[in-house]
Amino acid sequence: MLDPLPVHGYKPQNQDAIDQINRNKEIEEVVLRLCDRMKVGRDEYSPFDQRWLSIAVTHFEQGFMALNRAISKPGRVKLDVDEAFDRIMEAELENMIGTTEGRDNGV
Asked: Could you give the CA distance from residue 64 to residue 27 in angstroms, rounded to a whole number?
C-alpha cells in the first residue's frame, strides 16, 4: 500500500489501483482531445453543435471522475463540528415535528 493522497478522506491505494487510475486518465485525455478537435470550427458554419459538444465534454469529465472515485473510494471527513451539527439537526428535526403536529391539531 502506498501512502494516501494528502487530501482528507482519501485512503492508501495499492499499485494496481494507481495504475488503473493512470490508465483511465490517459483514456480521458484522448477523449477530451478528440472533443477539442471538434471545436476547431466554432463559427456558425461549424458542422458540430457546440452546445452539445460542451455538454459531452462535461459528461466525459464527470464519468471519468466517477470511474476513478470508484477505484480510490474516498470517504467522508470527520470534522470537529460533527457533534454540534448533530445537535443542531436534532433540534431542527424536533422543531419540524412540533410544527407538523401543531398543524394536525388545527393550530
From this structure: 9
